[in-house]
Amino acid sequence: MGHFFLPPDRVSLKEKQFAMKKKIAVHLADGFEEIEAVSIIDVLRRADIEVVVVSVTGKKEVSGAHHLKVVADVLFDQVNYDEVYMLVLPGGMPGASNLNDHAGLTKMIAKFNEDEKPLAAICAAPLVLGNLDVLKGKQAVCYPGFENYLRGAEVLDVPVVESGNVITGRGPGAAIHFALKIVEKAVSAEKAELLAKQMLVN
Length: 202
Fold this sequence. Notes:
The chain has one domain: Rossmann fold, CATH 3.40.50.880. It is globular, with a radius of gyration of 17 Å. The strands form three sheets. It has a seven-stranded mixed sheet, sandwiched between helices. Strands 3-4 form a two-stranded antiparallel ribbon. It is 35% helix and 21% strand. The protein has helices spanning 10-20, 34-46, 95-100, 103-114, 126-131, 175-186, 189-198; strands at residues 23-28, 50-55, 61-63, 69-71, 74-75, 84-89, 119-122, 139-140, 154-155, 160-163, 166-169. Helix 6 (175-186) runs antiparallel to helix 7.
């Protein structure tokens, strides 16, 4: 009886196909934290996840807190959220406040939470989740000084935490770990560990 060998890329191809089924929407408002936004988008795409960068400003070019301009893929009103697996909110100020002021986005966040679909926010952006009572009974983190916005949450002093359907991160220094936690949830812990090793992340 002959020997049967799996193609060397069989596992990675399976992971890639699995990841591509899950679309993740990263939302940008003027004043977003550039390190967080770019790190998240980059890491998720390294994981072969389908990422759509969404502008909530009404125009595709969005200006960051330190005047770096990013061109989004689509405008908020162009997104079919029925196809989206997770909503991600980079922080920065006034970016987080601008996200919080977008009625369409906050309505969608509330719907995702009601359906127990994944949500992720970092730095100042967890304030959006806190204002919607999404964090009640959950553990969460945020940029120092924004703790009072995390209504009903147990606030921890760690870089990143996953609690229920929500992932939160503290700030720019935690951006890659935050993105890897999203990869772990959307694909697998093995994929996140592999990416961390490739990027020399401790």
